[in-house]
Amino acid sequence: MSRIIDIISPIYQELIEKCGRRKISINLDFQDLSAKVENEEAVQSFFATEIKRALKNCETGDKITLSQSSSANGLRFSVKSSAKTPLDAETADKLREKGYEVRSRFGYDTIVSLTIAS
Predict the structure, then answer these.
(1) Which residues pair with 115 in a beta bridge?
(2) CA separation for the pair 7, 80 (Å, rounded)
(3) Residue 110 and residue 102: Cα distance in Å, rounded?
(4) How many CB atoms lie within 10 A of CB 7?
(5) Phi-psi region of 108 (alpha: psi -120 to 50; beta: other; left: phi over 0)
(6) Could you read off the pLDDT of 88-100 as tens digits, one per residue?
(7) Angle at CA 41, nearest 5°, toward 105 and 5?
C-alpha cells in the first residue's frame, strides 16, 4: 500500500510546470497525506485523466484544486477547476457510469470525484 503523499508528489510536480507556463493557479487540499491507499493505480489514473481534462478547459487566471478527504465510505479524491466551460452532458454521464461524482454547471466550478474504500 502506498501513502497519498507518494502518489500525489510526482503528479503535483508535473502540474506545477504545466500550470506555471499557462498562469493557472494550483491548490492542494489534502486532509491526510499519510493515509494509505490500497488501489494506487485507480488514484493515479483518476488524477492523470481529470487533471488533463481540467488543463484542457482552463484558461489563464483559472484555478485547479486537487483534494482528498476521508469519510465513512473511504477516501474521496477530487479535481476541481474554475474553467468557465462546463462538461458536456455526454462526458458527465460517462464519468458517472465509471462511478465518479460529477458537478459541472455553467458559470460555476467543475468538480469530478472518486471515492475509494479504505
Answers:
(1) 76
(2) 18
(3) 8
(4) 19
(5) beta
(6) 899 999 999 999 9
(7) 85
